[in-house]
Write a structure and sequence with these properties.
About 20% of the residues lie in helices and about 25% in strands. The chain has about 130 residues and is α+β, with helices and mostly antiparallel strands. The chain has one domain. The strands form 2 sheets. A 4-stranded antiparallel beta sheet has the order 1-2-3-4, with helices on one face. A 3-stranded antiparallel beta sheet has the order 5-7-6. Strand 6 and strand 7 form a beta hairpin. The longest helix has 12 residues. The protein is globular, with a radius of gyration of 14 Å.
């Protein structure tokens, strides 16, 4: 069975390896999205974020701090989180799709990209980084 489906979601861990979550791809209203389930919380991200982030990291060429933050908190400049909500990214803003839960891009997308073989991610208690493979 293909991984990343509702029946067979990717089983992932946060970069610090402290929490588990699942992710799978669905099509909602004609758009491919990632459904991220963390306990009882469900977040949605635009599926195109995977290729967009990979392209940006390849251009960046070096390690980039993840900088994960909730939607209500500002993201640290120069981080994956800041890029994932920036008006200058390919979607012109948030990759997170559920109002109030659009943040944490830097927490949940990097482990999926590592699993897909697109990136390397550090696994420290804090201050994790990623770079394109």
């Amino acid at each position: 069975m293909q991984p990343g489906t509702v029946e067979n979601p990717w089983k992932l861990k946060t970069p610090s390896l402290s929490s588990e979550f699942t992710m799978h791809k669905i099509n909602k209203d004609g758009k491919d999205i990632l459904v991220c389930t963390v306990g009882k919380t469900i977040l949605h991200y635009d599926y195109c974020c995977i290729n967009d982030l990979h392209s940006m990291l390849k251009k960046h060429g070096d390690w980039m701090e993840l900088g994960s933050a909730d939607e209500q908190k500002p993201a640290k400049d120069g981080t994956v989180e800041a890029w994932g909500r920036s008006a200058s990214n390919p979607v012109g803003g948030w990759y997170g799709l559920k109002k109030g839960l659009r943040g944490r891009f830097g927490m949940y997308i990097p482990p999926l990209m590592e699993t897909l073989g697109l990136a390397e991610v550090t696994h420290e208690a804090k201050g994790n980084k990623m770079k394109a493979k």
